[in-house]
Write a structure and sequence with these properties.
Length: about 220
């Protein structure tokens, strides 16, 4: 199980330190929520902040950019240039999905698609052979700290079956990532459903304990 800390819930006044704390705790994925105030109502940050984080943290951690923006097709290269290793785009916001995925991979990053809670899984299955990751939103995108929507279970299980069939036929393995309301109390359940990559925000970045202490609790839950 990959644990990908979501910096959306970290202290933005000291973002480099917060991300460094996660890396020092042994987490080598950082989930970067990019919001444009258009596709989602919130605003976060863009390539300049990511570039500075990359300089501060070095080449080690994987920067996983979740583009909650309307112009991902035109701007994804900026995020790769800033240091992102993986780009996920929303199927709801991309006009030419297959072409966008192909262009991301040709630019040197891994590519994923993101599905909102109400988006049918079929939209991802149509491009599954070209993907490295499918991100299932278990909350409505735009804000941190929301409660988990349990009805995504059937979507995840169907996706896992399709990926297993694809791999059995000699095709590409695809990670299933989930984002929204992931905590120590439900992470083992998500693994049982077929999730291999969990985005964790307030379950790691909070005022109750350090990232290392919260991560230890998550590991105990997985054991």
């Amino acid at each position: 199980m990959i644990i990908a800390p979501s910096v959306l819930t970290a202290d933005f006044a000291d973002l480099g330190r917060a991300c460094g704390e996660a890396v020092d705790a042994g987490l080598n994925w950082l989930h970067l929520d990019i919001m444009d105030g258009n596709f989602v109502p919130n605003l976060t940050f863009g390539p300049p902040v990511i570039s500075n984080l990359r300089k501060a943290l070095g080449d080690g951690p994987i920067f996983d950019a979740h583009l909650m923006i309307t112009n991902a097709e035109e701007t994804f290269q900026q995020y790769i240039d800033a240091g992102c290793n993986h780009i996920s785009v929303h199927v709801e916001a991309v006009t030419h999905l297959h072409r966008c995925i192909t262009a991301i991979r040709e630019a040197g990053a891994t590519a994923g698609v993101t599905l909102n809670p109400g988006t049918p899984i079929e939209t991802a299955l149509e491009v599954l052979p070209e993907l490295d990751l499918v991100l299932i939103m278990s909350v409505n995108p735009g804000f941190g700290g929301q409660s988990f929507i349990p009805t995504v279970e059937s979507k995840i299980r169907r996706l896992k079956e399709a990926i297993d069939a694809q791999v059995a036929a000699g095709g590409r393995p695809v990670q299933i990532q989930i984002d929204g309301g992931v905590k120590a109390h439900n992470i083992a359940m998500l693994r049982e459903w077929g999730v291999s990559n969990c985005v964790v925000g307030s379950g790691l970045f909070n005022d109750r304990a350090s990232v290392a202490q919260n991560l230890a609790e998550i590991h105990r839950a997985l054991e």
